Amino acid sequence: MFNSVYNVVYGCARGGGPCAGALFWQLLVEGMDNYRGGYEVIMSEQPSTANIITLNSRQISGLDHGLVGSVKHVGVKN
């Protein structure tokens, strides 16, 4: 399922569409058992899902729609 969603997100972002990324509601780390709700992703427990997230993140970060260098960060002097 994650791969399907990320493929759509990447296709949209690559084409200059409105979708530029996706996130999880429950991206947890080990030891956060009290926050589990059945929809959590814990990277160390799900290496294949972690790999899909990593690959998509690299794909999205590799896109350049003229935005690189145009983002201004608060508190950073140019």
From TrEMBL:
GO terms for cellular component: extracellular region. Coiled coil: none annotated. One of its GO terms (molecular function) is mannan endo-1,4-beta-mannosidase activity. This is Mannan endo-1,4-beta-mannosidase 7. It comes from Acorus gramineus.
